């Protein structure tokens, strides 16, 4: 049995973990990245593709003997239409892809889970406070912008339309900008063990907003929020019961609204305010790149497993548990 994934995002961690759990590994990646990935001896086979249609063909070659692990680059770069043509079984719930690609559907799912979320504005005319405007999909913050009023929102939207990043207002979400510390809470919903695990926390390192503090105060540069890296974080322990409750509410709601439910890793992307409120502004319904910090296990995964357990290895462990109990169909779609 092969574990395979697209060469980007968290692929090294995924395949390293799969190899630790005894699986054969394969990678499908753009041709220009083949040399880089071939240096890692835990990747058994590397396939370089010229275009995304060829990538789908390589993935489908593993229809009978492979499992594809999705991450943020799959839908964003291969594209939803091509992903719909993938016949190889996917670990997790592929029905979540369309929810994750639509910011408004994302927020409706969080709201249904009774999770505290920022206020949302349907029109620029309604904006009466600091907001952030977001584009759909897993773009790593590209194109996002912060605005202080409705005039700045309109100006920013016009720029995005001119740059052909969006077609109209329906392509974005306008959200209250909550002041606090960003914390991205990483979870794993185990079908085999019937439990939810907190597997890590990270903070995204964004350019250029995280570099503006080094500029003199008289220099004005418009902030951008493109994610270029991740920083590890540990939360106050008193926050964790609420974090866990949010995770449970989310998995239950996904089970009800997006069958067969939440399988494996996901992330609730949040801001913690000075009042200790946890406000969730987004979710990722699969492994997130912030887990790359913890290839040898996070402070939280150690508490569950008492051994090195990355999110990638946790995926491999769940698949192995499913194989050994003849329940593989319960973790694949």
From TrEMBL:
The Swiss-Prot or TrEMBL record lists the needed cofactor(s) as: Mn(2+); Mg(2+)
Can you give the residue ranges of the ATP-grasp domain?
A: 94-309
Sequence positions that bind 5-amino-1-(5-phospho-beta-D-ribosyl)imidazole-4-carboxamide: 9, 73, 230
> What are the GO BP annotations of this UniProt entry?
'de novo' IMP biosynthetic process
Name assigned to this protein: 5-formaminoimidazole-4-carboxamide-1-(beta)-D-ribofuranosyl 5'-monophosphate synthetase
Q: In which pathway does it act?
A: Purine metabolism; IMP biosynthesis via de novo pathway; 5-formamido-1-(5-phospho-D-ribosyl)imidazole-4-carboxamide from 5-amino-1-(5-phospho-D-ribosyl)imidazole-4-carboxamide (formate route): step 1/1
Q: Which family does the UniProt entry place this protein in? A: Belongs to the phosphohexose mutase family.
Positions contributing to ATP binding: 206
Reactions that this protein is recorded to catalyse: 5-amino-1-(5-phospho-beta-D-ribosyl)imidazole-4-carboxamide + formate + ATP = 5-formamido-1-(5-phospho-D-ribosyl)imidazole-4-carboxamide + ADP + phosphate
Against HAMAP family, the record matches this protein to:
IMP_biosynth_PurP (MF_01163)
Q: Under which EC number(s) is this enzyme classified?
A: 6.3.4.23
Membrane-spanning residues: none
What role does it play? Answer: Catalyzes the ATP- and formate-dependent formylation of 5-aminoimidazole-4-carboxamide-1-beta-d-ribofuranosyl 5'-monophosphate (AICAR) to 5-formaminoimidazole-4-carboxamide-1-beta-d-ribofuranosyl 5'-monophosphate (FAICAR) in the absence of folates.
Keyword entries, A-Z: ATP-binding, Ligase, Magnesium, Manganese, Metal-binding, Nucleotide-binding, Purine biosynthesis
What are the protein's GO molecular function terms?
A: ATP binding; ligase activity, forming carbon-nitrogen bonds; magnesium ion binding
